[in-house]
Amino acid sequence: MTVNEIPTLSLSDDVELPAIGYGVFQTAPDETVAAVTEALRVGYRHVDTAAAYGNEREVGDALRRSEVDRADVVVETKVWASDYGYDETLHAFEKASAKLGLDQIDVLILHQVAANLFDRTIEAYRALERLLADGRVRAIGVSNFPVARLERLMDATDVVPHLNQVELHPYHSQPELQAFHRQHGILTQAWSPIGGITFYPGPWGDDRRSVMQDPAIGEIAATHGVSPAQVMLRWHVQQGRSAIPKSVNPDRIRQNLDVTGFTLSADELARVDALDTGTASGPDPEREFDERQLFPIPEPEPERSGGWGPRNEAPAHRGAQAQADQQPEA
Length: 330
Prior knowledge:
The protein is built from ten helices and ten strands.
């Protein structure tokens, strides 16, 4: 497979990214380098990380070790709520760029709404606008924002988010949010695109059904001779979304990108759409943040040096490892 087989999506500012990216949520730092290296080797050209994942430094290490040109890879990361505020978010960019080994980040987004801190959230987004204007980031956006929060943010700022990364899989497809995105030129980006959050351990209930084991998905997969995961990723691709699957298993890393050899019919797409339950499996995006969620994101390690390609800063600290009950999947 070649990377050119994966469709390319254009953000509203003309930044382009492949429809399928590679995510590193809950990937331990000591596994991240090998996993990202393998993902790049088999053709991924979009890597999604976050300050709260604690593995930005290792993502940067893998990027730097790869033989892929810097210009060919879209690097996306997220600012955690403890770094919200105008000056704080500008500094969060400095921390992230140093850990990644980049002086320009392709996509930088706010990780959470942080409902009880929304004034700081708005100031954080204004800092993203400044970084965009200065050319230090190429695109900006948000994650886990429902429609009402997007409206409030857009009323208070100038740049419409280029993307919104949200929980989105067949059991939670958020059609109203997707329609709002289309209306305003916001790319829908799916975390948990193959429904991983429906079977992850955590404080979200023991009665969840795994979308991977859904009979309708299984029947469609059998028809095409592919896996349930490939069916769901093809569903995202054909409907024009950005999807961020994650795995550290080399076979599944490769399989998740191999979704161009079959096409879902209109009936099959409709069958997948019909699985929506209207209920999220992850935490409430509107939850308030307390001291437990507002853990500090560590500073870079100054003794590390070297960068990736012509745009470089010193990659550094592992960061804080987000706990599963603080931030699922994205």
